[in-house]
Fold this sequence. Notes:
The complex is a heterotrimer.
Chain A: E1 25-36, E2 39-51, E3 56-60, H1 67-75, E4 82-90, E5 93-94, H2 100-106, E6 111-114, H3 118-121, H4 128-139, H5 145-158, H6 164-167, H7 177-189, E7 195-199, H8 207-224, E8 227-232, H9 235-241, E9 244-249, E10 252-258, H10 259-264, H11 269-277
Parallel strand pairs in A: 3-8, 3-9, 6-7, 7-8
Antiparallel strand pairs in A: 1-2, 1-4, 4-5, 9-10
Chain B: H1 7-16, H2 28-40, H3 42-59, H4 61-68, E1 80-81, E2 87-88, H5 111-147, H6 149-164, H7 167-177, H8 183-211, H9 214-221, H10 226-262, H11 274-281, H12 290-323
Antiparallel strand pairs in B: 1-2
Chain C: H1 2-30, H2 34-39, H3 45-55, H4 61-74, E1 76-78, E2 85-87, H5 102-137, H6 142-156, H7 159-173, H8 189-223, H9 226-233, H10 238-266, H11 270-276, H12 281-291, H13 294-322, H14 324-327
Antiparallel strand pairs in C: 1-2
Helix pairs in contact in C: 1-13, 5-6, 5-8, 5-10, 5-13, 6-8, 7-8, 7-11, 8-10, 9-10, 10-13, 11-12, 12-13
Transmembrane segments (chain B): 43-65, 125-149, 161-179, 185-203, 234-254, 290-309
GO biological process, one term (chain B): transmembrane transport
Domain ABC transmembrane type-1 (chain B): 119-310
Amino acid sequence: MSTPETTAPEPIAPDAGTAADRPLLRVRDLTVSFTTATGDVDVVKRLGFDLPRGGALGIVGESGSGKSMTSLAIMDLLPKGAKRTGSIELDGTELTGLRERQMQAVRGDRIAMVFQDPLSSLNPYYTVGTQIAEAYRAHRTGVTRRQARRIAIEAMERVHIQDAARRVDHYPHQFSGGMRQRVMIAMTLSMEPDLIIADEPTTALDVTVQAQILDLLAEIRRDTGAGLILITHDLAVVSEVADQIIVMRGGDLVEQGTAERIFCDPQADYTRMLLDAVPRIDDEIGQLRTITTEEDR
Amino acid sequence: MTFTPTPLEAEGAAGGEATGDPASASPPRSGRRLVRTFLNDRVAVACSAYILIVVLMALTAPLLVTLSGHGPLEFDQAAVDSNLGGLPLGWGGGIGADHWFGVEPGNGRDIFARIVYGARVSMTIALLATALTSVLGVVFGLIAGYFGGRVDMVVSRVMEFLMAFPALIFMIAVLSALPAENRQALLVVVISFFGWPYLARIVRGQTMSLKQREFVESAKASGASSAQIIFKEILPNLSSTIIVMTTLAVPGYVGTEAGLSFLGVGVVPPTPSWGQMIASSVPWYAVDPAYFLFPGAFLFLLVLSFTVLGDRIKKIAESGEGRA
Amino acid sequence: MIRFLANRLLGMAVVLFLVCLFTYVIFFVLSPDPAVQICGKNCDPEAIDRIRANLGLDQPFWTQFWTFLSGLFAGRTYGTGANAIECAAPCLGYSFQTSQPVTDMILQRLPVSATVAVGAAVLWLLAGVSAGLVSAVKEGKFADRFITGLTLTGMSVPNYVLALLLQFLLVVTLGWLPFPQAVPFGEDPGRWFLNFLMPWIVLSIGAAAVYTRLTRANVIETLQENYVRTARAKGLSPGLVWRRHALRPALTPIVTIFGMDFAGLLGGALITETVFGLNGVGKLASDSITKNDQPVIMGVTLLAAFLVVVGNMVVDLLYTAIDPRVRVGSAT
């Protein structure tokens, strides 16, 4: 079961035996590659990590670090031309071997996803209610229109959208950016998923709204016990929600550990640079540092 | 035939809006690579070759006619059978060493000579109309997009009005009402009059977005005049769009000229034009198919070549921008 | 919504007025004197003057134009006293050739043009959209390249060439279809259908090619949209993703373009009707051009303009109904 060359996560037990302490998500040797004219390019290289049941994992990296490809690889929603190898186990079930049909049963039901740009991620032609209830209707048979509507309203209330009974019939363009992201989160709730993957959920939003959305994600996690993978380029965002952190760069895993350790005692130079780039209160004014990359040196 | 801009133009409109990358401003950057891409495309080369042949045919028409031995207006009663209502003698509408493409039924005029001279008319009208349309489209598009405000409103209204017009039927109405002298010049003017808004609309949109760019702002800040900014900063950035749109306009105009001539409001007989030759072949199509097949095939291949070429150039231009 | 409608109606009226003015100027100012034409060969100046007075041609331009416009809405009377002829609204005048009211002539021909237009529209919409869908699904594969090649060919073949070619092949050489001949639907539906088949095909090929390209481009573009990925992330089956999230946004613009193209066609397919000898509005126009029958040409031009402008407006309203972003304003 265990592969010797795996970059096994230090703080989490690599081999979980029984169902009770088996991790919710277990990723090993995950590699995503694109075939280009000049040969194969690996955008994710032999990545491995565990996510315990109900845990919150932050994946941090700059754009191009492979963090978003990791999330799409778990969902099997990689763009055309991308190849995925390695192992992804959800609650002991190997996902990489599943057929498209079986994978459909996993998507939306057991793993749900929140995307970065809520406006373009919502279909402008349908009401938010229709889109929220869509996952429920896809996974349950014989759902009536009225039931679907009730599910949608409930989900909207859970993400604190005021006046949900009326707003359920509105279209995405009638909502503000923060409200749209709440709608996106509401879409993940109807099926009570075991795992929610949020890919840069706050990047497109105003700073004040960002905090509200992060609070909401934390609240959802607390209430439902769902595992959370939060993907972001912003360490400050992760610090509020995640208890485990992975730092990625150019497809490689740079460092991983508990949030506390990463913040207090970063091991890798790159992590230190990322941390330095986060403005802190104790920083001297005007001392914002930028990240020096290898190419710069 | 409804006269709408060719679909490629319509797509150009959609795709064109996104362009205007300042990096694509320097033509020498990828010029050679574009030429190489183009030469590797066998279909594009074949299309260019056919267009070149037609252009050469048009240019050397008097010479070719001397070689073939018959002028375009010369009757040859010996080549037709007066007992059969003037049906050409011999196979395929009288094809032979004397008349290479056969003769017209009835009066025995040489089809080869009329095709060659017809190429002259078709190409001249189509190319002149394209040139005039491009000038009008670029000028009005630049003016409307650069100055904005009231100027833009007036130009945009005029464009909307012209585009809402049933252009083909109106061209026919205008051409049938106006006197017949100098029909070819009239055709160019009428076609361009209804054609320029389609280019102007795209040029306007791109000019508006280019105007916001840093390099235009900095030119403005350094005291450049409006004319300098338009010609030195904006126009070079529009070149690839203009080239694509122009190539795509030519087949439309070749077809429009032929269509108008077919309906009898274009080029006046006895001057040959391909559309008009096809029109006069209508009563004969059942007994002498060669009469419509020759001009029909030449016309079809010309329109096809321009269309395919435009399509390819557009793709190359887009991928070039993608690389930049 | 009401303001939008009023605005659109006003814009439509302005365009139609300008079309009338434009046409009128060209026909009654630039073209040769119609009185001379009507009078014929044995004609003296007095007779010409009489005709002019009868037609109101002795009046200043604006008076003439006003009479014409009011004739459109309220009808007009030609001549005076016992010779007076009443022309009911919408009055487009009388044909120089047949002396029939132009309005009647057009109305008689409209059913044929409508038949041609409807049949062709159904054909090109079906063929274009389905070929476009196939092309989009098989993007880059053989079927896609084959269809793309076909569309380029379809767009390039002039419809009169295609008409002659089809007639020559299907009727003369192979004998699969009968010679086109006007047969009323009630008399022999089968024959009627065969009779219109070729005009439908000829008229729809070019448009079908255009719609194929549009459908293909729109579908491919829509499939890249983020909301399609969202739909897949919800666990929807590929069929559902296609039907609900890709097709509707991709086909909406096509519906709107279709309205305009169809309206343009209703005003008569000049070339196709002429080549196949169908007695529609288009044939009427091309016949009138040869005979220089100005009132008829003008009548057809105005009808075509009217249809296109109305079609434009219907499309705008339709778009408002289909696209929620236009229908309901944003909350902010």
